[in-house]
Amino acid sequence: MNYGELIKDAFRITIRNRYLWFFGFFVGGSTGINVPTSVPSGGGSFDSDDFQSSSSMLSALQLGQGLGTGVLIAGIVIVAIIIALFFIFMFLVSQGALADSVAAIDRGERRGFRMAFRSGMGNLWRVLGYFIVLFLIAVGLMLVIGIPVALLIGGTFAATQSVGARIAVSVVVGILAVLALIVVFVPFSVIGQYALREVVVRGERVLGSVGGGYSIFRRNIGRSLLILLIQFGLSIGIAIAFFVALLIVGLILFIPTIALAAAGYSTAAIVAGVVAGVILLPLLLVATGAIGTFSHAYWTLAYLRLTAPPAVAPYPAT
What we know:
Layout: H1 3-16, H2 20-27, H3 48-106, H4 113-122, H5 124-159, H6 163-202, H7 206-219, H8 221-263, H9 266-307
Helix pairs in contact: 1-9, 2-3, 2-9, 3-4, 3-5, 3-6, 3-9, 5-6, 5-7, 6-7, 8-9
């Protein structure tokens, strides 16, 4: 496998198919009312009717305030749930849309936003099933590692009162647990990447896709780990470049805000800051979409290169 060509092809597909950035984005925050508690009395004398009327009004206001706060909280919760469901839905759709579109573009086919979205919708339930199965497997692996760790540490605490022995066992077992998590979940993450492409690109069933992903990893352990290592290095480089670019662009956009605030024009500084934020937000969204698309395309192309049938040399002419 030519790893340089792999990165180059992923970058080329990302740049030339900017509609994929939309899907790439989905795969990369009371006020109170003060009610007066003192009620003036008429003519300086105490009147029980006035007191009861004022108390009733105060109770009604407090009840209304409580109901208003409850309605507001319920509304916020409902809106938050709707937004969360929308992002989960688009995350699942985008997984299928990106994997299928990148594979089709790599084959030389023409794709557009509608075809990509239609492909994502067509693979929605199978991608959801894939993530559920992957989550259950991850939980099972965590239990396999976590139960012996808990038994060893718990048994040590029950068997001895020595603080030194407890600390020593806890440290050793903790280090071994971290190493076990790395050894298990690093390959598991790669297998998950392959399994997703098995579901979308090859059309495998959910359970079969996990087995297929494991088979691909087992046949290409060295290359798979190198692909993961390269992707890790690329992620660090992209994160640094993204942070530097964000810092430079943000500084340029917020120079008027800083200058106005330093001059004492608070209102103008706030307006300038809002305008700068409105300009900066779309740039952040676009950059996030491009980065997500590149990362997804990188793994899809790696999957395609590893699963491509070997080229057969032609027989020499006689």
